[in-house]
Amino acid sequence: xxxxxxxxxxxxxxxxxxxxxxxxxxxxxxxxxxxxxxxxxxxxxxxxxxxxxxxxxxxxxxxxxxxxxxxxxxxxxxxxxxxxxxxxxxxxxxxxxxxxxxxxxxxxxxxxxxxxxxxxxxxxxxxxxxxxxxxxxxxxxxxxxxxxxxxxxxxxxxxxxxxxxxxxxxxxxxxxxxxxxxxxxxxxxxxxxxxxxxxxxxxxxxxxxxxxxxxxxxxxxxxxxxxxxxxxxxxxxxxxxxxxxxxxxxxxxxxxxxxxxxxxxxxxxxxxxxxxxxxxxxxxxxxxxxxxxxxxxxxxxxxxxxxxxxxxxxxxxxxxxxxxxxxxx
Length: 329
Ligand code: MTE
Description:
The chain is of the alpha+beta class. It has helices spanning 13-16, 28-36, 55-58, 86-89, 105-109, 133-136, 165-172, 210-214, 266-270, 313-316; strands spanning 20-23, 118-123, 129-132, 141-149, 154-164, 180-185, 205-209, 219-224, 227-228, 238-240, 253-259, 294-297, 304-305. Helices cover 16% and strands 21% of the residues.
């Protein structure tokens, strides 16, 4: 039952993704926020760029909100679907370190300490290095509008801000025997009550194959809607891999290691028959407990067809040539 993407939906890559490059240098996000006419770093979500009423969905923004220049803030993804609102994106979250109740994550994560923050990058590299967030914000920050498809069969369209993971990996100069990248979330049970639960092997771990990690679509996100990430979204730094189920997009990363063996993720350890390493969005392969053929786009009624590789097949299908994707889940 593999689904074909109509050729009308296949758009050349250069116009396919939103790739507005914001700027390079310290304070990039703050300046980005200024361009968008929204509040600066680490402010509360009370005045987001499109709070409550997504400009894409509701027309004019509220009077009190300065209007973002249209060229800076597009209203749909490349398939023509509207962005989810800032409020939807930041009030319906999976973040098991806090709670398994999506609607409660935002409140429980409020006040989580996201500064100072460091990310240790090492393993099979010639130039291991610990990066402070200020250094990571010196990478040119780009806006990327991606679909996020959760393995639970809901999805959103999110305007992320961040930089390609490739740029970070190039800084540490991977050795030739580095085959995979292993990511680790912060372990802070005093602030993250879910990490006191014995059900999972904490900290949250995820992994990518080296070519997946170096792919241009693979993003280290530092913001969304032109604002710093909020804690519930994985502040201050999370991964976004848009062609894979959302659980691969690990939040609040503090450690990145290049390794020669497939990393065992939290989900592989918890339920290997349900959550595989590759986890490419595939409508033809059901989860053992539900179909993946359709999904519920948050904010819409009814269900829509799920696209192979979440609509990014043109960009990434070649990475898996020769692999039986019904087996290598
Ligand atoms: N990262 C950590 N550390 N902990 C989590 O529980 N949940 C994952 C992923 N990253 C998760 C995580 C899942 S299942 C999904 S669908 C996405 O985050 C959800 O991202 P969002 O809450 O920003 O929509």
